[in-house]
Amino acid sequence: MSTYVGTVQRAGSRLAEPTSLGSIGVTIGVIAFVLAIPPIAARSPLWPILLGIVAILFGIASASRGAYRVGFGAIASGVLGTALAVLAMQSSTAHLNQVFTASLIASMLVFATPLTFGALGGMFSERSGVVNIGLEGMMLMGAFWGIWGADKTGSWVWGVLIAMASGGALALVHAFFAIHLRADQIVGGVAVNFLALGITGYFFVQLYHGNNIPTGVSQIPDVKLTSESSHGFFADSFGHLNLMIWIAILFVPLSYIVLFKTPIGLRIRACGEHPRAADTVGINVYAIRYGAVILSGILAAMGGAYLTVGYLNTYNENVTAGRGFIALAAMIFGNWRPFGAFGAALLFGFSTALAFRLPVYSANGAVLFQALPYVLTLIAVAGVIGRTVPPAADGKPYKKQ
Amino acid sequence: MSGPLAPQHGSEPEEIKQAPPSTVASRLEMRQRAGGIIVPVLTALLAFLIGGLLVLATGHNPIQAYWDIIKGAGLNWLAHPTNTDVANTAAYNFSQTLLQTTPLILTGLAVAFAFRCGMFNIGGNGQYLVGLYVANWIGISFVNLAKPTHILLAVAGAALAGAIWAGIAGFLKATTGAHEVITTIMLNWIAYWIGNYIFQQGGPLQGAANKPLDIPISGDVAQSAKLPVFWGDADLQGLHIGFFVAIGALFVFWLILNRTTLGYEVRAVGYNPDAAAYGGIKVRTNYIRAMAISGAFAGLAGGLDMLGYLYHFGTTDVQAASIGFLGIAVALLGRNTALGVGLAAFLFGGLLYGTTHGLQSGTIDPSLAGHLTEMIQGLVVLFVGADVLILAVWNSRRKLKRKQPTPTRATEPEAASS
Fold first, then answer.
1. DSSP characters for A217-258?
2. How close, in Å, is residue A224 to chain B by CA atoms?
3. How many domains, in total, are found in chain B?
4. A135's torsion region: left (phi>0), alpha (psi -120 to 50) or beta?
5. What DSSP state is assigned to residue B239?
6. What would the CATH number be for the domain defined by A103-384?
7. Per-residue model confidence as pLDDT tens digits over B128-161
8. In a domain, B411, yes or no
9. Comparison of pLDDT for A229 and B200, the residue scoring more
10. What is the pLDDT of residue B408?
11. What are the sequence ranges of the domains in chain A?
């Protein structure tokens, strides 16, 4: 809204704006579901249904005032929240307590970490104007070379550094083709993914003869905030998280500061919005884009390294399993912003963590639940695409004059 | 061409040709056409060269390795093609190369068709898999049908499943603008997990005989659903008539694109959706339709593979399937044309079989060579993206020769954002 109405008035009117109404509706819909699960675990369907109706009303109010997308989102949130809450009430408290424990939060953070690294990396690349579909491949490079480095040098520090170098190297290939050769960035990104799959697969056979990585490889340590024996909400959810998880969380505000509060961030964004103008004021567009793409490869590779050196402590072929693409979706979902991307990564991480716990309901259907994060990504990408605004020059090669 | 394009870009036909392409695919297509067959051949050679260097760097003899791969693909059979007895290793290997070429043609067409409509369909693998599942299901059920009916039903079901699977991505692009690259990849993974679900122990398509043995593999399709084999033995993966279906599909692809209204619309949208919309073509409908046709090709590939030689499928097969991904390299190397796709599919079919089962070599380990295929595939796609530049330089030089450089608008092509 461009007109200035005065701070107080604006704050009041912003709440009554259709999009705000819709957002409130979405939140209420989520609360309806949260009520039904532990630790609250309300057993009476009255509250969720009431809240669901309120959410739907907010949604209708919002949609009828023109904010269709968020309005329908609120209606969907109300319906889904109520339905899921009623479903949760049908299942026994014992099952619920098995699924929704405090360690679900820890688990969510575990799965969100590679996505966060990838999404932040993708954000730097795309903010500078280079679409990076190759995140998946860069993450895979980090995953393989990271554990190879940790295995050969005996130190996880070297493992992570080698991973970062490998991801950066692959990103350099993508950058060279996208920036200097002005090749199509989506085709180039897809190629980089195949290349990473081939390289990691080839060297996995060459170096390990297709056998498993030996056990006892140096592992990224956990940060122990509480003693091993203590159990409580805090201890279970944040007590023994891996160092890389904290680094990922730290990187979110750090990326925000770099991108939005420093001259270098301004330059990156200028290259992504209007490279010609950036060039005119003396910014080296090529150098900035190279730097941003390589940084994205390094970050994605850190996510990959966390996956193998920090979490799984082993490697199998194509271990990243599309996480690079989910990270890309998280970045889009987060509207090319660090906190938004982190929020989306948490959502996808939560769905993965949940998928691993749902087998208590159906052992046979367990495998099918694994598709949940991908389905969610599909819905998210479809649902938000109209609202998000990519950098204006994203994906467009720049030619110096 | 009239309307908003005319005043903006002048009336010279050259100018019009230069300015409008606004999609990834159209730019690739337009510039690629200029290079003829030389550029794709160079692209492939360069990819093989770099692959060879890697083989050399890891301590194997690349020339010997490639020679073994060529023999593994049975290409030495072409020296004496009269001996069609599959007891002969070369003849057998060659029949197997053609067997691999069959689905590659179709998954290549799946990528190429969407490309001609301005979309990048990376979901060929998922569409191939759902086609395979449906063909397996129909092939196992409906056992009372007569042979041609059963085959037709299963093949049509497979193509339809692929069409629906890809159609989802087309629908999402048309209605919400969701980029097809991300949606098709997500659909790949969903198809992957569905496969792991249906064939697993206790899964709905696990074979009755396999259940007590705890083997996560489906039952075999009924005899009435198996495609006739015309070269070799059906029990030894003989070449089935699906090969001719794939060749026919190449012709259908060419026919649809170049001789029908539908094809005209698809190409118009692929070339420039805004101009097409201005000309009264329904762009959204074409996105959905083109993706569905694309998916039908890939689904057909899955159906023919299932009924032609696989007969059954298991969770490990789902995890190993990569035919649909190879289709991307096939389509790009084949310049998204029918003839090109056919030739590129043959190349990758040979590479695929020659580096895996056909390879009888002391030079390079087959499991190593298999990854060489992946790398060459990646390099081919990478260089296809880059030869756009080579051709752009070539074109601009030609243009310079013809007339003095005029201050044209900066040709910063609009690319699809992710």
1. ---PPEEESS-TT--SHHIIIIIEEEHHHHHHHHHHHHHHHH
2. 35
3. 1
4. alpha
5. E
6. 1.10.3470
7. 999 999 999 999 998 888 889 999 999 999 999 9
8. no
9. B200
10. 45
11. 7-98, 103-384
- Region A329-339: what's the mean pLDDT? 86
Contacts of B88 (CB under 8 A, 6+ apart): B77
Q: What is each CA distance from B210 to B135, B197, B200, B215, B235, in whole angstroms?
A: 19, 15, 10, 5, 20
Among B178, B197, B380, beta carbon nearest to A367:
B197
The angle that helices A323-333 and A338-357 make with each other, rounded to 10 degrees, is: 130
Tokens of A89: 């009430």
Task: With respect to residue B410, please indicate whether it lies within any of the assigned structural domains.
Answer: no
Residue B407 belongs to some domain of the structure? no
Average pLDDT, chain B: 83
Radius of gyration of chain B (CA): 23
Least confidently predicted of A202-206, A358-362, B97-101, B313-317: A358-362
What pLDDT does residue B5 have? 32
**pLDDT tens, B385-412?**
776 555 555 555 565 555 544 444 444 4
A191 inside 8 A of chain B by CB: yes
A13: left (phi over 0), alpha (psi -120 to 50) or beta: alpha
Q: pLDDT tens for residues A107-133? A: 899 999 999 999 999 999 999 999 998
Q: Would you call B124 helix, strand, or coil by DSSP?
A: helix
B130 within domain boundaries: yes
Q: Does A392 touch chain B (CB under 8 A)?
A: no
Structural domain range at position B369: 5-402
B186:A131 CB<8 A: no
Task: Determine how many CB atoms are found less than 10 A away from the CB of residue A327.
Answer: 34
What is the CATH classification number for the domain harbouring B238? 1.10.3470
- Kindly report the length of chain B: 418
| Percent of chain A whose pLDDT exceeds 90 | 34
